UniProtKB/TrEMBL annotation, chains A, B, C:
Its EC number is 3.2.1.23. Residues 14-394 form the Glycoside hydrolase family 42 N-terminal domain. GO terms for cellular component: beta-galactosidase complex. InterPro entries: Beta_galactosidase_C, Beta_galactosidase_Trimer, Class_I_gatase-like, GH, Glyco_hydro_42, Glyco_hydro_42_N, Glyco_hydro_b. The keyword Cytoplasm does not apply. The keyword Calcium does not apply. This is Beta-galactosidase. GO terms for molecular function: beta-galactosidase activity; metal ion binding. The active site is at E150, E314.
């Protein structure tokens, strides 16, 4: 493949040849190449450019453009246009539209207003993809394909009639009989019992917005399934036509979608759209958020959970904003480079800026590209060129992998249950943010690992410590993998509320923590949300005071290997155990009876001996991120300064600066937004 | 009757025998009985358990369950299942559904998604109630019936087509002719004149959400009428079948419903669902609300206004919460007992905990019962047992009545008008809270009395002082009752805005305070809302500064018996009278030109000599509530400590502690959440 | 004409003879006349009074009323009743109703629930207007007509099917072909291309609420066009029948409506509805807003932009409030007079109080008139009488014009674009408020001037300085007018973001500030919203620190006449030019790279020598407004004290107090809310 091939870092951009203007095209492509951009993505919303009238296909426009690109030496990623059905299509076939829960259709004019399950839309999609792929795939300028654009962006809930029909089919396949569904969804409650699948719908408007939670969980799985099937339908067609070595991808990472499954089924690799400047949107800015744009390292870690090496299809290159919202300032000098290197540090080997020129019309007139409206050279283009020069120097890191000894276990079942269940959500979000921020502040590289069906204890072995803060839903299979990981010497850290639901999201009629009882050596006779009239519930762990946030399980140690490490210090359960360590096989399980705040998570990192593993080499202030990519035995240390102020780091062992090739040691000062890559 | 019979206090619980598991049933019933629970409520959402397919009735499940109950010696309250129509029903007959104002139907899956006026739903309701009552009513385990569940909960507005048709009928009966309706509703305004009843609808979507206020008032009366008719339809059927001594009730106290009428027409007594832990919901917690869970004493006083003795069908026994909201902590040790005794103190002779086990599926997985998911014995079950033991000791208070010398007059016309009229609402809510909180803080027992058509001056006589803070709407009949009460020596306290509307909610084209002019000796040439650029408007009453909150009537004393007691101290009406006392017959009327804040209300209690009437016996801190039940000449004093801290009371005359049978006097320390019952 | 005739100031009121009660009518009219009210407006919602059943017309009611009015000597403004279609009409023809974007119809019962484009409503409107005008126009009591009531109030967006059909017609006329529309709207973006006008709709529900911004701009123009056509349809009919000298007007000034066009096409003059007490609504009160009710001077300046002399059809005379909201206190003694004089000071020669009696039913029971519900004499009626006496003294100012040397340029294209574009909105609102407040505080009279097609450089010449803070959209024609104004010696002050869009709202693919480049001598290589992590960006202008609010253009001076006056002091563009002065012909253009805060605007007023032009005569505290009306050479200075406190002014040259006829000089103390008119 031309990109993500382990050979070098590549720069690209998103290009919109909207009008037939060859001299403009040539001029643009020439300027891109001069500034180090060698790949462009095109055509992701261009359905009408190819099929302006139903069944009438015209390839002239992109034929010509691709010839120009080939002539100039520009490589092209070509897109299927299914994210934006044309006006003629939605006007003639309104059944393809998505709707809100009340049944109001989302109309033409925005993006992604279609539903995945409309037979008519699937038919029209198959036609346009088949026509496009069969016509263009052999063109020498093309190096790969993007399916659709940002699947599940804009809205990841679907309420059309086609969705109800497809949902019934999904449920029939899952449950076989309506009584099995009744049992799984607990329809005894509030007399929800169904007599046939015909009585089941996607969630509809109900009083107090109370759709059965087990239904909503299955519905979310169904939405993900629908998106995956839609992507695969396109991928299967494109595969028939593409040249050897050309790739298929799609971009973005959105909710209610199992990105691993989609990638496995349909893509060669995944790409992400990274806009850290969202942190500076005027209406969303949170001055108390310590991480701000550095939060995007979390998103990049999510992408890395899908694939260790990946691409950035859209990397921020200007101010963001729609005419209707999301207004943000222009990136300051250095920020574009910082955010590009943030992507690379986490595993991106391809970075494509969104977009070359800023659009002068439509909703996205403020979603700036590299160039402003006039198209003249500017500061940001100069920054692109300097990134290109840096990429040349960093070439050897292509194909290296982000290196972490701490893992954070996740799974879609818990993620989606926490969306529909406010008790689950409260603990989940506290710990998600707490553990991530603690790892960031302490320069402890951390991976996310999704506990999928194909994950084995062997896959988990590289991690000295695994946080799985709130595995509320747990299956027998996953439990067995975790037990094996621990038995073989692993260290698993669990938080409150573990194991109280089955995979349908029903509570277990059992002692808690359910399936975790044995490995954790814990029994939970009582529990409570932290009352709003109490605050700062504290657990004492050998003299260290841990905040016991959000929820408190009152624990009892069970079995000879279970040891009470910490006890609550206040409220009516003062003196009760709140932290238990269980030796299980060769390993250990820690059960902490609350959610993990950032301070609490930092104590765990420290006490478990995994905090700041590179501090023998590098001493870095907490305002800088440390990310390490490794290939063979070489470690590439990225130090990223997110602040608009200088930062001082200490290089304790002599290292090589990849930008300059020079040796560095001792105190090094990073300029505002500066990044250093040291090996 | 087995409960509310003046003989003893009885404990119950709500039970959900969802699966046919006789050994579980027997085990549960045995454990209940061992812990003092002798009544269970069942089947309130169980329509599909009896009629899973339309017209196919199967009684096996509850036949067997009732036999088991009878065998174990458990008494049963059986419910009609109409709160939750089955899926087959709403799928086949969508006309039974309620809708929002825009016409979007509320679909299957929640609760109470039906409308009262659908002829089809009424027909199907009659069938299921007839079938259930005729089949089960003779069963020896059954002691009474609950109609539906929480009428008007979830939503107390109805916008289906059936509602419009029924509303027209209601209006035709009320007005006779469309011109009478036009006159009553002032349809001259904004050209709203109707030519026929066919042009009238339940409130529909209008610009700026402005439905004619007189229509909304009648609509609210119509909603209440609809609910009452629906309850009576069921009650009339059940009455035909029940055993002698068995009762009919329903539960809860919700908006837009004349609970007195419903009780008189259809019930033997009313029961309430008491969840004081709502005060500790995470999203609703108000740390500045002094009363918190003690606010539920207000709700209990509302129940008592319907019936001096009543039951609690659902009493909080665990944390509350739906998966979609209302998350609250687990009740602390002692709170369950405290809230139970709060119910008893206000007149409950039957208390049934919601629920035995916590449901493991559906929306209410966090609405905890006595037992958690596992069903094992726990702290809260132990607390139930101790309540049972206390109930044994309190047996003699059954049938005694809450005793108050201060009354607070209410009526539904004003309550409902204050919902639709923000000026009315502002004064109403200020005074509702102010007077209640003043009574609570000063340990002044107070009753609510609804000024219904059957209330006479004689009924009011027991009250030394009656507050009727803002009788905006007043009828000639009610005026006469009040005049008679005062003439006979009563003391009536009125606040601002009295009497400026007629019973249609139209303002009177008359001097204010309209019908109250004569009895109050007041004329009101000017009035104003307290301007947001003024604050703390004060009236001086013999040197005491009264806050004149929200609204200011500028008064003039009329007649020889009217005396100016207080004058405004600031704003452009400084010096104008704000408080007038009128001697009227043997009694007095106080007209206060503003709303009653808590401090203001306390001054009235004090100056009118009704504050803290039991202070010769008991001296209690303001953090404790005092409630007194009386039978014959015995006064039972409940002292309830709502705080998670000790409280010190002083027993000035020797009294007997009913729990221990011991004499107590002098200083007594109440533990956190502790209750003492002294006689 | 009887009013707005340059001869005298006239008082009126709005009257609602709702019931046939001649003695009440006579009594009311007599009392009005006794208190100086000589004109009444009637019948604006009275459709059913004339056509209660479709096609059945009955003129008796107003025939009789007009005879009584004539008999009493009262002059009448008669209204067309189209603001409130009758129930029979909307029931029979629901297609006349307006709808929300989701298609939900706005139903009978409020106001203005119709749409302008329904052929059926237009037909029924033509009939009722023709019938009314042909029957009543000759009546001697009538002096003029009001069309409808408050066009575009309640809601100024229309989503009915008739609107879509009319919108297509509007677009066909504007663009001729669908491809011209595609080009103008940039439908290339997000594949929005249309193949025919049949595919185009008024804005519909879209995901993320993103309708094409160029479409929304045209849609807003279409709404304005629809309202103007609707008014003209009525005006054309009425003109056929009215007596010589009788006038046609309408009332209010609402959004999405080109009031100048409507006035030019259909009216003799415009009238406004002035309710400054909105500033004291309980829910909207902003104690930090310095101007409060004085903000209504801004609205009055907008009216004056339509016509130098105008009327007030509804002037606040009591508390405002609907039963559903907008609750406000009663005007304090003096405020009614203050607000009346505020209207007069800005150009009103006719002032009509809303309303005589307060309505006792319907939504507006709290929208108080002069009299309260009882109708008896009161303080506010006495204030009307005193206003009448003052009007006698002020008679000579009738026909005089508000006098200002500072102008504020506006146009509807920019106003409407700023509604749909949050970046535009942010700068627009900052500067709108900043410049207005600066002018008010510094007693610098200021006019609004709408840069319409018929405005010439000559029209602008009287203004020494013109602010045109953010002309984002600019046409070639307007540019030429501005250039000519400057060349001839004018001074034009521009702010950031000038000229970056064309008249379709598309960004120009050109250097910024686009069409302003030449006259301003400015180039803008970079720009940014002020980042939320920076604050207080400052430009230094000869030692004066200017706040550079909201947005920062980084400027470069171009050409020999351009001079850098100010530079940014902070952020990454510290040192870059932020203020450039260009000499252009005989005049100058100032380009300021940010929005104008109040402090910044004050500096401009000062540095450009136009601040406080009357300070040689009068020295006034900033809490008082100064407004000057001029006739021939006489200047009438209105000094208005908006505070509930005394204010001290200094009369430096001897002047005459028009109320008293006395000479005044030196220190004069104004009582709370007092107004002085000095010449």
């Amino acid at each position: 493949m031309e990109i993500i091939n382990g050979e070098r870092l590549v720069l690209g951009t998103c290009y919109y040849p909207e009008h037939w203007d060859e001299s403009l095209w040539r001029d643009d492509l020439r300027r891109m190449l001069e500034n180090g951009i060698e790949v462009i993505r095109i055509a992701e919303f261009a359905w009408s450019k190819i099929e302006r009238y139903e069944g009438v296909f015209n390839y002239d426009f992109f034929d010509r453009f691709l010839d120009v690109a080939a002539d100039m030496g520009m490589k092209v990623i070509f897109c299927t246009p299914t994210a934006t059905p044309p006006a003629w299509l939605t006007e003639k076939y309104p059944e393809v539209l998505n709707a809100n829960m009340d049944g109001v259709l989302y109309r033409h004019g925005g993006r992604r207003h279609y539903n995945y399950n409309s037979p008519k839309y699937q038919e029209l999609t198959r036609i346009i993809v088949e026509k496009s792929a069969s016509h263009y795939a052999k063109h020498p300028a093309i190096i790969g394909w993007q399916i659709d654009n940002e699947l599940n962006c804009e809205k990841n809930e679907f309420y059309s009639e086609s969705d109800t029909i497809a949902f019934r089919k999904f449920l029939m396949e899952k449950y076989g009989s309506i009584d099995a569904l009744n049992e799984a969804w607990g329809t005894n409650f509030w007399n929800q019992t169904y007599n046939s699948f015909e009585e089941v719908y996607v969630p509809r408007t109900t009083l107090s917005n109370n759709t059965n939670p087990h239904e909503v969980l299955d519905y979310t799985r169904f939405v993900s399934d629908s998106a995956c099937r839609f992507a695969k339908m396109q991928s299967d067609i494109i595969r028939k036509y593409i040249k050897p070595g050309d790739f298929i991808t799609t971009n973005g990472l959105f909710g209610n979608l199992d990105n691993q499954r989609m990638t496995n089924e349909s893509l060669d690799f995944i790409t992400y759209d990274s806009y850290p400047n969202f942190a500076y949107c005027l209406d969303a800015y949170n001055k108390d958020n310590f991480l701000k744009d550095r939060m995007w390292s979390r998103n990049l870690s999510e992408v890395r959970a899908v694939s260790k090496n990946f691409g950035i299809m859209e990397q921020q290159s200007g101010a963001n904003g729609w005419n209707t919202g999301m207004a943000a300032p222009t990136p300051k000098p250095g920020q574009m480079t910082l955010w590009t290197m943030q992507s690379v540090a986490h595993g991106a080997d391809y970075v494509s800026y969104f977009r070359w020129r800023t659009c002068t019309y439509g909703t996205e007139i403020y979603w700036h590209g590299i160039l402003d409206y006039s198209g003249r050279d500017n500061r940001r283009l100069a920054e692109v060129k300097s990134v290109h020069e840096k990429f040349q120097k960093l070439s050897e890191i292509a194909g290296s992998k982000y290196e972490a000894k701490v893992g954070f276990l996740k799974d879609y079942d818990n993620a989606w249950d926490s969306q529909l269940d406010v008790w689950h959500e409260k603990v989940e979000w506290k710990s998600q943010l707490g553990i991530f921020e603690a790892a960031q502040r302490t320069h402890t590289p951390m991976d996310y690992i999704y506990l999928r069906d194909d994950v084995t204890a062997e896959d988990l072995k590289p991690y000295s410590v695994l946080f799985y803060p709130h595995p509320v839903l747990i299956s027998e299979e996953r439990k067995v993998v975790l037990e094996e990981y621990v038995k073989n010497g692993g260290c698993l850290v669990l938080g409150c509320r573990s194991g109280y639901k089955d995979m349908y999201g029903r509570c277990v009629m059992d002692k808690l923590p359910g399936k975790f009882a044995e490995m954790s050596g814990v029994d939970i006779p009582e529990y409570t949300l932290v009352s709003p009239d109490n605050k700062d519930i504290v657990i004492d762990w050998d003299g260290t005071k841990l905040e016991a946030a959000v929820f408190n399980d009152q624990l009892v140690a069970v079995g000879e290997h279970a040891e009470v490490l910490g006890r609550y210090e206040n409220c009516y359960y003062a003196g009760e155990p709140g932290l238990i360590k269980n030796t299980y096989g060769e390993g250990t399980v820690y059960y902490f009876g609350a959610a993990f705040s950032e301070k609490t998570a930092e104590v765990f990192l420290e006490k478990l001996g995994v905090k700041d593993p590179h501090n023998a080499k590098l001493e870095i202030p907490e305002t800088c991120e440390l990310a390490v990519r490794k290939k063979d035995d070489t470690e590439y240390c990225f130090v990223l300064n997110y602040k608009d102020a200088e930062a001082e780091i200490h290089v304790k062992e002599e290292m090589t600066d990849l930008y300059t090739g020079e040796k560095v040691s001792g105190t090094v000062v990073l300029k505002p937004f500066e990044v250093r890559v040291l090996k």
